Amino acid sequence: MSKVGKKLKKNMRDNPYLAAGLVITGMVLLLIIVGLFWTPYEPTAMNAKEKLSGISLRHPMGTDNMGRDVLSRVMYGSRITLFIAMGTVAIGAFAGTIIGAVTGYFGGMLDEVMMRIIDAMFAFPSILLALVIISIFGTGWVQLLVSLGIAFVPSFARIVRGEVLRCRNMDYVENARLQGVSDLRMIFVHILPNIKGVLASAILIGFNNAVLAEAGLSYLGVGSQPPYASLGRMLSDAQQYMFTTPSYVLCPGIVIVLMVLGFAFLGEGISRWK
Amino acid sequence: MKYIIKKLGMMIATLLVVSICVFLAFSIIPGDPALRLLGTEASPELLAQTRQQMGLTDPLPVRYLRWFLGFIRGDFGVSYNYKTPVAGMIVSKIPITLTMAAMAFLMTILISIPLGIFTAKHEGSWLDRGIIVINQIIMAVPPFFSGILITFIFGMILRLFTPGGFVNYTADVGRFVRYLFFPSVAIALPKIAMTVRMLRGSLIDEAAKDYSRTAYSRGNNTNGVLYRHILKNALIPVITFLGMTLADMVAGSIVIEQVFSIPGISRILLTSISNRDYPVVEAIIMGIATIVIVVNFLVDVIYRIIDPRIGFEDE
Questions:
Q1: If DSSP codes are grouped into helix, strand and coil, which group holds residue B116?
Q2: Is the pLDDT of residue B61 over 50?
Q3: Site from B10, B133, B138, B148 to mutate, A interface, most A CB atoms within 10 angstroms
């Protein structure tokens, strides 16, 4: 067995968080990856004869109020949720890192102005900021992705700025500066690789927040539009059938919880990695 | 004092930036407000006249100043859809949202601080480990999903409240508060989990420092060290977090109001967003942002009172 494999095996044994995180995330990813190629039914196919049926062999997660197979819809919906969450974090981390690194490194007037704007954006909780942007651009999954991405920029910018400020006057930076390294090279080749640990944990936490924010916003009906619904939207459609068909509400809800929980456990496990 | 004035100045600067951002964001949207207010059948003369009346022909800075001064005086303009002043539409809803956020905040403090102290005191015990895992799970449940589950369990099965049977505070304050209890729990749950986790970590960090060892060696018992020495220091980061949480709760209530069908700010905000009724959206957003900024300022002040070292180097 390879060295990494052995280390992983040892860690799995005395690090239950890592094991649980890998298993849960693996399950959710399996559901999504299989859903890319095959779903038990067409996610939008309706069947008037089988409305709101509970859990059965034919429908492992039951059917919804239009007789659509909930498992197929969950497979499709979790793909949308995952995709938007990943896109959100990608936009937020990319723009936030550049803004934070440049302002932190150069300081001065630019830094002062950018930080006031970031402070102003911090005055809006991310759901609200996303709602503002959506109210300007309109509803839909592209708008949701862009607005959540913008809403996630300030936290990344602030974290990276703090780290760059800390590194800016360290000896290795001073040393590189004496060797005539340009500012851009200094930021991207010398400083950023040194803060990748902090950035990685920020991305992991950001991903979970993004899943929760996406779910919340599509629950409010401003995300991807029916018939292709993301998990949050499915829950808001399902809510009124809670009493008659609990499976219709519980299944999409539990998948959201597992998605977030898996990554949370993974993060916890990685921080305890020996 | 100097510190507080400096923070006050920063608060006002942030408020100004926020208001400029909000104003600009809603000014660059294509579309003519006068046309929206009057409808497409209005005559060109009337349109021009209304535009004049609304001051849309003035340059942007003048319009901003007028809008901002109006906001300070509590005049938020007129709704495009309902043709009534925005202030009247919102003011009666504010107590609903604020009561809910306040109740959730109170629950968070009352539950998470004792629980955080308890888990830190019994660090490593099976109960502590169990609470950590439960915490992780609660943090992973989106508030609207726990809201749906609470409606199902406490509303439909145990019948402790009637889902959808909201009673306004103007009708019956007691039943109003009772109805808002369960939505507040849904908002508070993840915040409680986060605060417990934070306080626990902070307490354990502080307990490892030299001063707490000194306090032990001077003959204090665990409780003495904990309550007289460690707790105050450990609470400092938690207070910052609680300040941010209060702001989050006001925003989080948007989703929860929808789950429990409470006719609060959220419903107006969502219908106004889908109807593109911008004066209403602007007013609500500025209102929430103002609350957040003022809370952050208060947190800074409380911070300074608890820990006089903060901001000392600036003076």
A1: helix
A2: yes
A3: B148
Cβ atoms of B232 and A193 closer than 8 Å = no
> What pLDDT does residue B314 have?
47
End-to-end CA distance of chain A: 18
Q: Which residues of B108-118 are buried (b: 16+ CB within 10 A; e: fewer)?
A: bbebbbebbbe
Whether ipTM tops 0.90, in short, is no
Global pTM?
A: 0.85
Indicate the domain borders of chain B.
2-89, 94-263
- Rounded to whole angstroms, how far apart are CA atoms A151 and A145? 10
- CA–CA dist A133, A130 (Å, integer): 5
Residues in chain A: 274
Cα separation, A81 vs A83, in Å, equals: 6
CA distance A6 to chain B (A): 27
Of B278, B298, B312, B259, nearest to B105 by C-alpha is B298
The radius of gyration of chain B's CA atoms, rounded to the nearest angstrom, is 24
Let me know the angle formed at the C-alpha of B178 by B176 and B183, rounded to the nearest 5 degrees. Answer: 95
Strand partners of residue B85: B78
3-state class (DSSP) for residue B78: strand
Chain B CB contacts of A81 below 8 Å? none
Q: From CA A150, how far away is CA A232, in angstroms rounded?
A: 20
Region A74-80: mean pLDDT is: 89
Domains and CATH numbers, chain A: 16-35+65-271 (1.10.3720.10)
| CA distances in angstroms from A149 to A197, B12, B94, listed in the order given | 21, 27, 29
**What's domain B94-263's architecture?**
Orthogonal Bundle (1.10)
pLDDT at B315: 41
Closest CA to A200 of A266, A132, A126: A266
Torsion angle of the four alpha carbons B303, B306, B311, B315, in this order, in degrees rounded to the nearest 10: 130
Q: Which of B156, B247, B273 is the closest to A134 by Cβ?
A: B273
Q: In whole angstroms, give the CA distance from residue A168 to residue A243.
A: 59
Q: What's the Cα-to-Cα distance from B74 to each of B68, B88, B247, B262, rounded to whole Å? A: 10, 10, 21, 25
Quick one: which H or E segment has residue B95?
Answer: helix B94-121
pLDDT digits (tens, 9 = 90+) for A123-174: 777 788 888 788 777 778 888 898 899 989 998 998 999 888 888 888 888 8
Taking the CA of residue A215 and the nearest CA in chain B, the distance in Å comes to 8
Q: Which of A105, A147, A108 is nearest to A130 (CA)?
A: A147
Instruction: Mark yes or no for CB contact B281/A243 under 8 Å.
Output: no
Cβ neighbours for B156, distance < 8 A, ≥ 6 positions apart: A242, A243, B163
* Alpha-carbon span B276 to A222, nearest angstrom: 13
Say if residue B170 is exposed, middle or buried (CB neighbours under 10 Å; 0-12, 13-18, 19+). Answer: exposed
Mean pLDDT of chain B: 84
Contact between A104 and A162 (Cβ < 8 Å): yes
